[in-house]
């Protein structure tokens, strides 16, 4: 076995220099062995269980102008929308019938979506479905807002850090956004008691082995309960519209390395991965992933949530077609429960 992989298995961490070395020669790793190790860790912590999350894309309005995102403020070609509380509750009602016990409310940083309105919607969901978990993914807010949402019943929060390298962060984001504030938000969320999700895009413009090493060191330090990674995919109406997408091969290797670094982590095989390759969902599972997030949003708005070009939103990506998803996950069991991150070693 690769010596650095042995070290990772023994200690669950590498130094930044070791990460750079391992990542620099990732193409020469025995991928079959790596994926076997990742699946063994997943099996040890979760058995054959895969967790489903019902994704509800609340709003595609965003005040930010990130260079990679199709929802950026200056993209005037996207048709903007914002779901009402009643529409979201209708999505939850359908999802609950289909077996979802976690709802992920995702959106841009929408100035028209008040913190109080979010809290009211979260409270309505948790009152109606007390056996369900609510996950929020609504960007950067202050501690008072995160506390308000926690008190309303939200228990998980997804906030990809995107990159742990200051120079790389500056290449991806406009000057008014800062890596320090993003990090402050992640640690604030943890301190408030949320199960926290971080993550990054694979192959984003400017990403190097050095920046990736910092990403893995951050994950070691933060110890998030969830990690969301997926390939960078360009959106044609952004400054990065002509950049090359991230690769399937790198995404799968990084999924496996995250599983070895954080064995009990909840690790999605993302929609972006399934968009890049029709086999992406099942290949992600072979690399150690254990979460899928089919789309519960109203079909009429799914194409408008255009983070990147060609987003998969039908077939196994659509919540109403769980049979297609089960067919992709042959040999794995779709768990009908909240799917909280484990806190004790099995």
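^ structure tokens above, recovered residues below v
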């Amino acid at each position: 076995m690769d010596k650095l992989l042995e070290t990772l298995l023994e200690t669950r961490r590498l130094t930044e220099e070791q990460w750079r070395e391992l990542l620099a020669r990732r193409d020469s790793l025995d991928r079959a062995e790596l994926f076997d190790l990742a699946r063994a860790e997943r099996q040890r912590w979760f058995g054959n269980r895969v967790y489903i999350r019902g994704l509800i894309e609340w709003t595609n309005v965003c005040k930010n102008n990130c260079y990679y995102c199709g929802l950026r403020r200056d993209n005037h070609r996207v048709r903007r929308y914002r779901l009402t509380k009643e529409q979201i509750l209708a999505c939850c009602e359908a999802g609950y019938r289909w077996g979802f016990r976690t709802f992920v409310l995702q959106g841009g940083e929408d100035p028209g979506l008040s913190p109080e309105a979010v809290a009211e919607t979260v409270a309505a969901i948790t009152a109606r479905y007390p056996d369900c978990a609510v996950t929020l993914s609504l960007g950067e807010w202050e501690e008072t807002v995160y506390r308000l949402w926690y008190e309303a019943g939200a228990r998980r929060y997804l906030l990809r850090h995107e990159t742990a390298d200051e120079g790389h962060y500056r290449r991806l984001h406009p000057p008014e956004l800062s890596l320090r504030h993003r990090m402050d938000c992640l640690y604030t969320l943890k301190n408030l008691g949320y199960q926290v999700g971080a993550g990054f895009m694979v192959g984003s413009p400017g990403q190097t082995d050095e920046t990736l090493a910092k990403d893995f060191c951050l994950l070691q330090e933060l110890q998030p309960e969830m990690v969301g990674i997926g390939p960078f995919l360009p959106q044609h109406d952004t400054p990065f519209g002509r950049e090359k997408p991230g690769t399937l091969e790198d995404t799968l290797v990084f999924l496996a390395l995250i599983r070895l670094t954080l064995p009990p982590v909840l690790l999605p095989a993302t929609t972006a991965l399934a968009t890049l390759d029709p086999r992406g969902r099942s290949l992600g599972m072979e690399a150690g992933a254990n979460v899928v997030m089919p789309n519960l949003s109203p079909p009429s708005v799914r194409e408008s949530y255009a983070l990147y070009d060609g987003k998969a939103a039908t077939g196994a990506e659509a919540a109403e077609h769980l049979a297609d998803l089960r067919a992709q996950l042959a040999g794995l069991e779709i768990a009908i429960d909240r799917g909280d991150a484990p806190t004790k070693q099995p």
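The longest strand covers residues 54-59.
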